[in-house]
């Protein structure tokens, strides 16, 4: 064989091997492999007995053998807000597997199931699952007002920071998310959950009512004194006109945890810091190391607590001591309140359901006012989801989690609701929202996120207990069942006993 023939043959062989390897790789990817037939040797006698020629015939027949499809990894999710959260995936009833969901499942080779329930039922099921360390649910709803703190410290949630580099995905870009919404789900720097719809503080108000009664309009640098003066003027004007069923203010002051999200923002604004423990400490280690005692009977905590309960009683509708966010929303939607604060998302929800043309045409958004402590009244919350530490399908759960909280889901949320309460800057500044509200209101919403901290109350494992107790005490004051002084004295005693029993001061 000549050298030229050798080079050609070797090149042909390498090309054949490359084709086979490439074919196997592609074939494996689409579910089939080659099955070569064995070499056959044929002996043939030609001419006389002295002339025997042996011919070897080699044939390789490629047979396509269909391999069984890869079994999809099952990923279970539990959440509330059935029909409102992700209808583009689960339908308007929350039980329909849409084509979009089917395409996502096919692309990621997952089978997503979701279990719905009311908020309390979901919280109880999540708590039972993680405490039993069963891992029934791969992705769990936590929220940033107690659950992420309790489960994060207990080790029931999977830390997520390393997942961004270990398991790259195209759905959730943390650099597009407002840092405060991620901070709300961090425990001492570690990220335990990703946010879906989320909100910062704001004021939704009726410009026409302000103008009718010559009340000073909300402005960027206004104060709580300015707001109080405006509410007094509106109340006087309404009653002077004989209007007794419209009120200057709607807030939530029902018993339980709900009011505390907003009430804590009043305390922050009036004190200038999270005035729950001595020195304004917010982390468990700080409380233990400094032996920082609760300060619920201090003037710093009292100032914001008193303002919240006093405004609710003076300027709110009857029954406000029982009101949740739903009542807060409905009161504004039917035109019975001039102002809704500080969880402005409930005002945007009201605008989405109102039939009142005056509410539609005259509602505006403004940043919350500054309190005596030189901080704005705050209110932050994220509808956030984490991965169960005891999930057996964490990598698959991560892909589902990042899709549920990613850009496509945020865009669908914004287009469907028309609310600017989104986590990502690219979505906040998207065409549908700018068209609806105008660039100035979008910029104000962004400032409400950027200029206020997500952590304005202590991030401790016992937070859910504190949220419930503080909210209930405030509700009882608004209802007239307790004075501010007696409520705070009771709260101080309860908190001191709880923190002592938990070993913070031992």
Strand order within the widest beta sheet: 6-5-7-15-10
User: What characterizes the major β-sheet?
Assistant: 5 strands, mixed
Shape: globular
The CATH topology label of the largest domain is D-Maltodextrin-Binding Protein, domain 2
* Structural class assignment: alpha+beta
Rg computed from alpha carbons, rounded to a whole number of angstroms: 32 Å
> What is the terminal separation in angstroms?
91 Å
The CATH class of the largest domain is Alpha Beta
Overall mean pLDDT score? 90
Helix segment count? 22
Number of discrete domains: 2
Strand content: 5-15%
- CATH architecture tag of the largest domain: 3-Layer(aba) Sandwich
What are the segments in which pLDDT stays under 50 over at least 5 consecutive residues?
1-57
The helix content, as a percent range, equals 40-55%
| Total DSSP E strands | 15
CATH superfamily of the largest domain: Periplasmic binding protein-like II
Report on the structure:
The chain is α+β, with helices and mostly antiparallel strands and 506 residues long. It folds into two domains: 73-192 and 381-450, Periplasmic binding protein-like II (D-Maltodextrin-Binding Protein, domain 2, 3-Layer(aba) Sandwich); 203-379 and 455-501, Periplasmic binding protein-like II (D-Maltodextrin-Binding Protein, domain 2). Helix content is 48%, strand content 13%. It has 22 helices and 15 strands. It has helices at 3-30, 87-90, 99-108, 119-132, 143-154, 163-166, 179-183, 207-212, 224-240, 258-271, 284-290, 299-315, 325-333, 345-353, 357-362, 394-404, 407-417, 425-428, 431-437, 439-450, 463-479, 484-501; strands at 32-34, 40-45, 52-57, 64-66, 73-79, 110-116, 139-141, 186-187, 190-191, 194-199, 203-206, 247-250, 337-340, 363-366, 381-387. The strands form five sheets. It has a five-stranded mixed sheet. A hairpin with a 2-residue loop joins strand 8 (186-187) and strand 9 (190-191). The longest helix has 28 residues, at 3-30. 43% of the residues are buried.
């Amino acid at each position: 064989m000549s050298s030229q023939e050798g080079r050609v043959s070797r090149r042909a062989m390498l090309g054949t091997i490359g084709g086979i390897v490439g074919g196997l790789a592609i074939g494996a990817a689409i579910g089939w492999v080659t099955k070569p037939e064995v070499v056959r040797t044929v002996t043939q006698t030609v001419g006389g007995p002295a002339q025997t020629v042996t011919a070897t015939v080699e044939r390789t027949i490629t047979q396509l053998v269909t391999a069984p499809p890869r079994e999809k990894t099952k990923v279970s999710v539990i959440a509330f807000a059935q029909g409102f959260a992700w209808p583009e995936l689960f339908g308007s009833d929350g039980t329909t597997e849409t084509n979009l969901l089917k395409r996502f499942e096919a692309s990621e080779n997952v089978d997503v199931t979701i279990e719905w329930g009311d908020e309390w039922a979901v919280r109880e099921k999540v708590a039972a699952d993680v405490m039993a360390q069963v891992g029934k649910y791969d992705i769990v709803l936590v929220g940033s007002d107690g659950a992420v703190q309790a489960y994060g410290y207990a080790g029931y949630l999977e830390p997520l920071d390393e997942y961004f580099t270990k398991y790259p995905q195209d759905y959730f870009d943390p650099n597009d998310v407002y840092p405060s919404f991620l901070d709300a789900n961090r425990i001492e720097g570690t990220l335990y959950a990703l946010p879906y719809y989320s909100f910062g503080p704001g004021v939704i108000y009726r410009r026409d009512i302000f103008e009718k009664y010559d009340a000073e309009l909300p402005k960027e640098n206004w104060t709580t004194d300015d707001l109080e003066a405006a509410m007094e003027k509106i109340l006087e004007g309404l009653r002077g006109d004989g209007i007794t069923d419209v009120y200057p203010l709607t807030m939530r002051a029902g018993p339980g945890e709900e009011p505390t999200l907003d009430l804590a923002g009043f305390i922050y604004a009036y004190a200038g810091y999270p005035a729950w423990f001595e020195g304004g400490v917010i982390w468990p280690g700080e409380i233990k190391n400094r032996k920082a005692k609760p300060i619920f009977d201090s003037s710093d905590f009292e100032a914001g607590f008193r303002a919240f309960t006093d405004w609710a009683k003076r300027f709110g509708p009857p029954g406000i001591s029982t009101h949740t966010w739903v009542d807060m929303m409905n009161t504004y939607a039917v035109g019975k309140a001039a102002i809704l604060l500080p969880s402005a998302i409930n005002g945007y929800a009201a605008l989405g359901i109102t039939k009142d043309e005056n509410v539609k045409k005259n509602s505006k958004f403004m940043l919350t006012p500054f309190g005596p402590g030189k901080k704005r009244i705050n209110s932050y919350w994220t509808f956030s989801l984490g991965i169960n530490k005891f999930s057996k399908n964490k990598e698959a759960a991560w892909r589902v989690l990042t899709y549920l909280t990613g850009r496509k889901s945020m865009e669908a949320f914004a287009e469907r609701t028309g609310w600017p309460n989104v986590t990502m800057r690219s979505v906040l500044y998207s065409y549908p929202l700018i068209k609806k509200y105008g660039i100035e209101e979008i910029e104000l919403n962004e400032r409400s996120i950027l200029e206020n901290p997500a952590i304005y109350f202590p991030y401790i494992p016992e937070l859910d207990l504190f949220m419930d107790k503080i909210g209930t005490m405030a509700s009882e004051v608004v209802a007239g069942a307790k004075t501010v002084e007696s409520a705070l004295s009771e709260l101080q005693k309860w908190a001191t006993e709880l923190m002592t029993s938990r070993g913070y001061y031992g």
